[in-house]
Structure formats: structure tokens, C-alpha cells
Amino acid sequence: MMNGVPRPTRSDIRFGPAAAQCAGWLYMPSAQDPPPLVVLGHGLGATRELRLDAYCERLADAGIAALAFTYRGFGDSGGIPRQTLSVRRQLEDWEAALAYAQTIRGIDTSRVAIWGSSFGGGHAIRVAARHPELVAAVSQCPFTDGYASARARGIGTALRTVPAMIKDLVAAAKSDDPVTVPVVGSPSSNALMVAPDALPGYSALIPAEHKFTNEMTARSAFQVITYRPGRAARQVKVPILFCVSRADSVAPTAATLKHVRNARLGKIEMFDAGHFDFYVGEHFETVFASQLAFLRQQFERVSGVSDLSDTT
After folding, report:
1. For residues 20 and 78, what is the distance between their CA atoms, to the nearest angstrom?
2. In terms of pLDDT, which residue wins out, 158 or 259?
3. Cα separation of 133 and 125, whole Å?
């Protein structure tokens, strides 16, 4: 309690199939009336500990409940194989999160929005296209086109992952131990993200006390390259905010804009922030302020009343 006002609460949650449950956090604001809810999912290889708590805290302070989760196979979520990217499974995790949201007591289940960043920003586009009942969606520095991202890496850089990918596919066929590559690394490495700002930017998101596993099965690279969620933007029927970097080293800006301009109810905001700058410091404050204003507007549009806190 601060100055006599109850603080938002955070609870650990789990949802989904028993053998592959997603671990998450549920933040509940102190408001007496049932609040709206935002479901948040992260980017490539990331767990919710990598700064999603910062977004959830701000949302809860503003009177909005927040549910952040970690994809199965990563972090403290269940599921096997571990450290393996599956677009299909991650989209199923989003579906499970939305289904769980409808069971949460004390929230306004008619006012649910989604928020995704980077690879999760691409998922947010796909999920919003599937769920016209959502009030809104936010897609931050979205990964929209794997082919475009691969071209931006350069052919030589992209080819460094191929030998490990082939070995890993063979290992999977033989049920041998997987062959892994770093999620993020230096420009000379065979990591999945090798832009000059990737390693320092990603590392800055990892709390000192959090044990983060910086590796992914090499076969995951194929999922990254072939995923093109931006093509679903034209199918989105709910208001969606795209927060786009003017100089994105991971999700090329030109390709992103080409896709997101097709969203009928899309709003595009451009920021002078690199792909990893969105999460920290002044850039975080600026970007989140825009996202919160957008979400408030959409939640109030549905409810017809302004019932959210002005706290930012």
C-alpha cells in the first residue's frame, strides 16, 4: 500500500495442457470495478522476465490487468522439446492464454487486448486476425517477414547457421541430442540474431538474478526464415497499433511498413529507437506512453466510460 492506496498484485499462474503448461504472471490493479486485460507475449527466445514485468506494472498502475506468459519449451514453462521454436506451438500458446483469460475472476472479459513484441509482435498480428472479438492489439517492433530479415543479415551471415541446422535436423531424425546455436551473438557468430546492437541490446533485458539460456536448437532457424506474419495484417479487423523503429536491425523497417499498412484499422507510429531500445530508458517511456494512450482509447470506446487511472 502506498499513500493509503492499495498496490497492484502479481500472481504466478500456469495454463494449457498439463504436460506443456505455460508459466505466467497475472497483474491485477487495485480498482474495484472489473478491469480490462492485456495479454502479453515476448520475442525470439525471450522469457517474460526480460522486461515484460515493466509493461505489466505500468498497465496495472493504470487500472488495466495484465497477463504475461512464457512460451512452452522455454524458461520455467513446461513442454518438450526444450529451446525449440515452433510457430504453430507458440500460436497455440497464445490461444491457450486467451482461453485462460476468459476464466479469470474479477476482470471484464468483454475487454481483452493483446500485446506482442518482436517475434511476438508478429504473433500478435496473426492472433488479432483470428480474433475479431478482441478490443485491440499492440505490435511492437514487429517481426513481419522472415525472408526480409534473412536478407538484412546478409547471405554470408545467414549461411553460417546452415551447417548446424543440417546437423540438428539429422540429430532430430535419429532422436540424438540436439545441435544448438545462440539466440543472440556477435556479428561473427552463427547466432540467430547477429546485428551489431543485438548482443548488447538483448543482454540489457536480462535481470542479473535471472538464469537465461542463450541457445536454441539450430532447426529453429528454418522457422524464423519462413515465418511471414505480416501477410496477416490485411485480415485484422480490430484496431491495432504498430510501433515501428525507423532503423530496425532485426525486422527491416521497409518490409514491416509494406505489410502493416494493409491493416484496415491499423495505426502506425514511428520511433527513433533501435530494435532493442524499445524496452529500456527514455525510449521505453515514450513508446509505452503511446501504447497506453491507444489502449485506454480502445477500452473506453467499448465501455463508453473513462474508468482507467491516469497514472503512467
Report:
1. 4
2. 259
3. 14
The pTM of this model reads 0.94
Give 79's DSSP letter.
-
Give the residue carrying C-alpha cell 532447426: 219
Beta bridge partners, 243, equal 140, 269
Cα 116 to Cα 153: distance, rounded to the nearest angstrom: 23
Handedness of CA 285, 290, 291, 297 (dihedral sign): positive
Backbone φ/ψ region at 281: left (φ over 0), alpha (ψ -120 to 50), beta: left
Q: How many helices (H) and strands (E) does the chain have?
A: 10, 10
Work out the number of other CB atoms within 10 angstroms of the CB of residue 7.
12
233 touches 262 (CB < 8 A): yes
Q: How far is CA 93 from the centre of its chain?
A: 12
What's phi and psi for 112, nearest 5 deg?
Answer: -120, 135
Mean pLDDT, residues 240-264 taken together:
97
CB of 69 closer than 8 Å to CB of 101: no
Q: Is the dihedral of CA 85, 133, 284, 206 positive or negative?
A: negative
